[in-house]
Design goal:
Strand content: over 45%
Structural class: mainly beta
Largest sheet: 8 strands, antiparallel, barrel
Radius of gyration: 24 Å
Protein name: Secreted protein
Number of strands: 10
Oligomer: single chain
Helix content: 10-25%
Strand order of the largest sheet: 1-4-5-6-7-8-9-10
Shape: globular
Order of helices and strands: HEEEEEEEEEE
Number of helices: 1
Distance between the termini: 64 Å
Keywords: Signal
Signal peptide: 1-26
Length: 168
């Protein structure tokens, strides 16, 4: 009788385990909230894939985000440089997109064109390897101009290494 009861209990446990899928919940550890030091490293910049030194840009960002799923987060970045933009997380990588009016000045000194700036970053460890739940992020600051601007068919594109460190 005991053997039969034990066998029945084993079958019930196995059926429950097979029929119940694992629970999925939002990963709130993935949200970015707080104050961050943002650094675009101009000394390692490339213009249209050629190394060309640019000014290093450092700023303070205040980031507020919420996550509906582990890798679906969105919110707002406010920079101490006077701009605000949307921030999104897709598959573990964060994106901030903004338009820079009058980014490219033409040789005539009057005509200007906008640029599209995109910051892409992901959490890293001390060696720069991708990890989860870090207080340091690394990636790229990329600004691309308009094709045909200033009579040039080739878009001007400036890419710099980017680092984001949580300060508070």
């Amino acid at each position: 009788m005991r053997v039969l009861a034990l066998a029945s209990m084993t079958v019930v446990i196995a059926l429950v385990h097979i029929s119940c899928p694992p629970t999925v919940r939002a990963d709130t550890a993935g949200a970015l909230n707080g104050t961050y030091r943002a650094s675009s490293l101009g000394f390692q910049a490339k213009t249209n894939s050629r190394f060309e030194q640019q000014a290093t840009v450092r700023s303070t960002w205040t980031i507020q985000t919420t996550c509906s799923l582990a890798d679906l987060c969105a919110g707002t970045v406010t920079s101490d440089q006077g701009w605000t933009a949307e921030v999104r997380n897709m598959a573990g990588q964060w994106f901030v997109r903004r338009t820079l009016p009058d980014w490219m000045k033409c040789p005539d000194g009057v005509t200007t064109y906008p640029g599209q700036q995109i910051f892409k970053f992901y959490p890293v460890d001390e060696e720069g390897q991708a990890v989860r739940n870090s207080q340091t992020w690394a990636g790229w600051d990329e600004t691309t101009g308009v094709s045909g601007a200033c009579g040039r068919n080739l878009q001007t594109q400036i890419t710099m290494p980017f680092r984001l460190d949580q300060t508070a």
